[in-house]
Automatic annotation (TrEMBL):
EC number: 4.2.1.20
Cell inner membrane as UniProt keyword: no
Family: Belongs to the TrpB family.
Domain Tryptophan synthase beta chain-like PALP: start-end pairs: 61-376
Protein name: Tryptophan synthase beta chain
Subunit annotation: Tetramer of two alpha and two beta chains.
HAMAP family cross-referenced by the UniProt entry: Trp_synth_beta
Involved pathway(s): Amino-acid biosynthesis; L-tryptophan biosynthesis; L-tryptophan from chorismate: step 5/5
Entry-linked Pfam families: PALP
Gene3D superfamilies assigned to the protein according to its UniProt record, in alphabetical order: 3.40.50.1100
UniProt lineage: Bacteria, Bacillati, Bacillota, Bacilli, Bacillales
Single Gene Ontology MF annotation: tryptophan synthase activity
Catalytic activity as recorded in UniProt: (1S,2R)-1-C-(indol-3-yl)glycerol 3-phosphate + L-serine = D-glyceraldehyde 3-phosphate + L-tryptophan + H2O
GO CC terms, sorted: cytoplasm
Length: 391
């Protein structure tokens, strides 16, 4: 974790022209308090020790940086390492951020956690950690999504959470977010809104990065132990951008390390987006001809969002990080290749990163090193892939 103080720009939540906080005054005040409290605890010894304790004892960190020997041989280029976020309890990186934010909520005296969820992954991670830490938990989910993801609704309820089906608007993620924000403004004195990705108004992008940066803190130490040098490239999938910013964080100041984000070609926010304000912050957004956010589509539920974290928007515009798209076919192929060659079934989201690594590795020499962030495991996706491949 970074020891340095936040820079002035970061404190206001700006990354170049991106980020900020474009919200109604009553919400702005609540977020200011949150930003102050986060600033207070981010370098607090006791708080960080507690965070580390649960990452180790509950999540099972540190997870391996695994040498993918067979995949490396097949591709015949750079040496490939996999950062195994899929081995975390609950099966993905999301739990890192969730635990960090709940511990902060407790320090702030909150008794109640609220969160939004689309497909249910963030909701399940939140319900899990709330159960473990004894917090009251309410998850807002669009009504349509609750119908499509009935099993995840049951999972959250099993974990003790209350799931509110939002029957407004289109009954999707955006409506769930609006409802959750309404709840926060009304109940902020004892309620904490737990946001699931490196998006939203300040301080969320900075806070989520802070908690997810454990990924690159570990991978940097691990690659130095194994190879005695830094990687040539770090590759991660970008939905809202939280696993990618966590996987990049400790390499951003290492100019020789290429940072590569991968997105679905039908939700190519960074590759094709334009600067705009969406959901309370400025970032690159996919806009239609009238300047409205475009509906996106991805076979991976966790990537279906027309915006992207403000820091990724900045890393793209400043040229520090590179972003590429992959097709659905390439993702399905990568999903199967990692399963067959390494005995690891990746999440469809993570398969985007693998798909790009498959193209990059053969272009590099055998002495070069690539780290792929395997953001989650694919058990949740097996039935869907079965439907796509066998029918
Ligand atoms: C949610 C999710 C993502 C996308 O979210 P980011 O905030 O971009 O990391 C990627 N992979 C998995 C496994 C997820 O669950």
């Amino acid at each position: 974790m970074r020891e340095a103080k936040m820079s002035a720009a970061e404190r206001k939540g700006y990354f170049g022209e991106f980020g900020g906080s474009f919200v109604p005054p009553e919400l702005y005040e609540v977020l200011e308090i949150l930003a102050d409290e986060f600033e207070k605890y981010r370098n607090d010894r006791e708080f960080n020790d507690e965070f580390r304790y649960y990452l180790k004892e509950f999540v099972g960190r540190e997870n391996p940086l695994y040498f993918a020997e067979r995949l490396t041989k097949t591709l015949g280029g750079a040496k490939i390492y996999l950062k195994r976020e899929d081995l975390n309890h609950t099966g993905a990186h999301k739990i890192n951020n969730v635990i960090g934010q709940i511990l902060l909520a407790k320090r702030m005296g909150a008794k109640r956690i609220i969160a939004e969820t689309g497909a249910g992954q963030h909701g399940v991670a939140t319900a899990t950690a709330c159960s473990m830490l004894g917090m009251d938990c309410t998850i807002y989910m669009g009504k349509l999504d609750t119908e499509r993801q009935a099993l995840n609704v049951f999972r959250m309820e099993l974990l003790g959470a209350k799931v509110v089906a939002v029957d407004k608007g289109q009954g999707r993620l955006k409506d769930a977010v609006d409802e959750a924000l309404g709840d926060l403004v009304e109940n902020y004195q004892h309620t904490f809104y737990l946001l699931g990705s490196a998006v939203g108004p300040h301080p969320y992008p900075t806070m989520v990065k802070h908690f997810q940066s454990v990924i690159s803190e570990e991978s940097k130490r691990q690659i130095l132990e194994k190879e005695g040098r830094l990687p040539d490239a770090v590759i991660a999938v970008t939905g809202g951008g939280s696993n990618a910013i966590g996987a990049f964080a400790h390499y951003i100041d290492e100019a020789a390390v290429r940072l590569i984000g991968v997105e679905p070609d039908q939700a190519a926010t960074l590759t094709k987006g334009k600067p705009a304000v969406i959901h309370g912050f400025k970032c690159l957004v996919l806009l239609d001809e009238d300047g409205n956010p475009q509906p996106t589509y991805s076979i991976a539920a966790g990537l279906d969002y027309p915006g992207i974290g403000p820091e990724h928007s900045y890393l793209k515009m400043s040229g520090r990080a590179e972003y590429y798209t992959v097709t659905k076919e390439e993702v399905l192929d990568a999903f199967q290749v990692l399963s067959k060659q390494e005995g690891i079934i990746p999440a469809l989201e993570s398969a985007h990163a693998i798909a790009y690594a498959k193209k990059l590795a053969p272009q590099l020499s055998k002495e070069q090193l690539i780290i792929i962030n395997i953001s989650g495991r694919g058990d949740k996706d097996v039935e869907q892939v079965y439907g796509m491949l066998k029918k």
